[in-house]
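Supplementary Methods, section 5.1.

A reviewer requested that the exact input to the structure prediction be made available. We therefore reproduce it here, unchanged from the version used in the analyses.
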Amino acid sequence: MNKTTIPKSDSINRRWYVVDADNQTLGRLATEVASILRGKKKATFTPHLDTGDFVVVINAEKIQVSGNKAEQKLYRRHSGRPGGMKVETFQALQERIPERIVETAIKGMLPHNALGRQIFRKLKVYKGSEHPHSAQNPEVLKFDSPALSQ
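The structure derived from this sequence is encoded token-by-token as follows.
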């Protein structure tokens, strides 16, 4: 009979990847990055453990969305006070904090529990092409997502 092996936390080999979001579709990029963060592309994937890799996303301000989502997609946040709901469109948030758009899309595709919060800490998103993680020698990761024709 075959035994299922569970990887020990010290035996998990974590790699660093850098992803360029320039001309990428938001949802397609987010699903690929979430899969790498969880470790689903590894042979040692275990649903209840964090076996994933680190991902650095650069050029977050150049992410694309299809259709009329740039004007119609809304991002909501609440201060916790009565009447504290703030609503912002995709375009306005992209001008102000483009990193939050990518982070929100990826976070929504991770488990909504303590494991998901632990996995989310391995995501690093930056505006522009510079990032402070060059010491980790991240590998460049390319996705076959076609650019949007707008």
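The helical segments are 26-38, 69-72, 90-96, 98-107, 114-120. These observations are discussed further in the main text.
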